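Input.
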Amino acid sequence: QVQLVESGGGLVQAGGSLRLSCAASGRSLSIYTMGWFRQAPGKEREFVATIRRSDGNTNYADSVKGRFTISRDNAKNTVYLQMNSLKPEDTAVYYCAATRTYYMSTFAKKDSEYDYWGQGTQVTVSS
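Output.
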């Protein structure tokens, strides 16, 4: 079992930046593939970014490529989502997720592929 707690959400103006944190406890996150998802009002939960347990390679949704960066700090047992050039359409509840699956040739981009979830943190981007 691993517990995940997101933090760092808030209100920011369009064009601004925000860094979300996902702190893990109970297990080392180095043995987990990690992902970020988001859900806006009236929309399904969508994939944002993932970082593989196997090799540390990352993958992003087309809507955030070039603006968002997922990273991990093993010393702090924390995964981050750095969000730059924020847009109003980025407004959503952001969730951190984890899976023990050892992905080698593919990326986990569906929420059904993850086993553990944080409580979510609200990100609101104003015009």
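The longest strand covers residues 18-25.
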